[in-house]
Write a structure and sequence with these properties.
The protein has about 375 residues and is α/β, with parallel strands linked by helices. Helices cover about 35% and strands about 20% of the residues. The protein has a single domain, classed as P-loop containing nucleotide triphosphate hydrolases (Rossmann fold), CATH 3.40.50. The protein starts with 8 loop residues before the first strand and ends with a strand. The structure holds iron/sulfur cluster.
Length: about 375
């Protein structure tokens, strides 16, 4: 994927590795894709495929989290790996320049023409919460139990306009508009209530309102409907689509559920073992997947529509045989080769190239 011009967000050769006593955990391994303005792109795949790590890298949180876990593990090897990373950074060198693979983030994350991997923590933090916002999965720890819903939504403005902000009726109306956009009922009365008075599904919509109120260019939603019943899921997904249509913002949706991606995204990237297996138009990819992993994943996790079609054809659900390789010890060649029914000798020897086989349709496979 060359040229950043047409993209709001463009990820190029992104790597995000954790350190561990046993070796580097390659959570994201050479991933590239782009999101244009107004587009909704989904990342789909098994858990541990690297989807959330891509989001954390964009948000500038991957390395912070990874260093934190490494420091709590109290291992010499971890400390050594991170000290090499710090040395490389001071000398503006990459893993390749140092001749050794290092933990942390490498590659490029272009956002509006700025490479986020080069920003310092302060500049990154100013962007997150204003131009790029995040809807996390699970709400139990995300809202402050002691602040009213209105205060929490207003806090987003507080972070943005710290100096000139006064809580006034105009801002309160803006909060109400946003809560209305995510279809929370009776908010003129309920906005002063604490989170304890709201259901989990309503909490999740408050978080979505907080992500939308600064009118960001990009909203990242990481499994925003996990553990919610179907009716509430539907409301949240409708709110995300409505917001995207009315406000024209782009969305990066992370999920392991093809139905959610189909309902909300016009493009999708399918990930496995930290790599992008296939990327393209959602409708085409869901109906005619060409990558053996995408085909196997969709046969084992079909969307409602696929399930209906499979039943009509008398087909059964099929799980993917075997287990994904360890991210510490990824075999040479294609990481799917031990589980792929189409694998040949080259698949275990050479890593496939991620190449465009049709306009905006990218595949990582020797046989396609
Ligand atoms: S490269 Fe080979 S092993 Fe990998 S998905 Fe394609 S056919 Fe299967």
């Amino acid at each position: 994927m060359s040229g950043t011009g047409e993209y709001l967000l463009k990820i190029e050769n992104l790597r995000a590795f954790h350190s561990s006593k046993e070796g580097l955990i390659r959570a994201v391994n050479d991933v590239s894709f782009g999101i244009r303005s107004g587009e909704s792109v989904g990342l789909l795949g098994e858990s541990g495929a690297g989807k959330s790590s891509v989001a954390l890298a964009i948000l500038g949180l991957f390395e912070r989290q990874s260093r934190y876990y490494a420091s709590s593990a109290k291992s010499k090897e971890n400390r050594h790996q991170w000290s090499l990373r710090d040395k490389a950074r001071k000398e503006a060198k990459t893993s390749e320049d140092m001749g050794v693979e290092l933990p942390g983030v490498e590659g490029h994350i272009w956002f509006n023409g700025v490479d986020l991997t080069t920003l310092n923590e302060k500049d990154h933090r100013e962007l997150i919460g204003t131009k790029i916002t995040y809807v996390p999965q699970g709400t139990s720890k995300a809202l402050n139990p002691l602040l009213s819903i209105e205060q929490q939504v207003l806090e987003v403005f507080w972070a943005k306009f710290r100096d000139e902000m006064r809580v006034n009726e105009k801002l309160s109306m803006r909060v109400l508009e946003e809560l209305d956009l995510v279809e929370l009922g009776d908010m003129a009365i309920r906005r002063d209530m604490l989170p304890v008075n709201f259901s989990t599904g309503e909490d999740q919509r408050v978080l979505l309102a907080m992500a939308l109120i600064s009118k960001p260019d990009l909203v990242i939603a990481d499994e925003p409907t996990t553990a919610l019943d179907t009716a509430v899921q539907h409301k949240i997904l409708t709110a995300i689509k409505r917001a995207s249509k009315e406000l024209g913002q782009s969305t990066l949706m992370i999920s392991n559920d093809p139905s959610i991606i189909t309902a909300t995204c016009n493009k999708v990237g399918v990930m496995s073992s930290g790599m992008m297996m296939e990327f393209g138009n959602t409708e085409r990819l869901m109906n005619e997947p060409v990558h053996p992993f995408t085909q196997a994943f969709l046969m084992s996790n079909p969307s409602f529509e696929m399930l209906r079609q499979m039943r009509q054809r008398g087909e059964r659900l099929r799980t993917i045989p075997g287990r994904p390789p360890s991210l510490i010890d990824i075999p040479p060649g294609c990481p799917f080769n031990s589980r792929c029914s189409k694998a040949t000798t080259i698949c275990s020897e050479e890593r496939p190239e991620f190449r465009e086989i049709d306009t905006d349709h990218w595949v990582f496979c020797h046989m396609v």
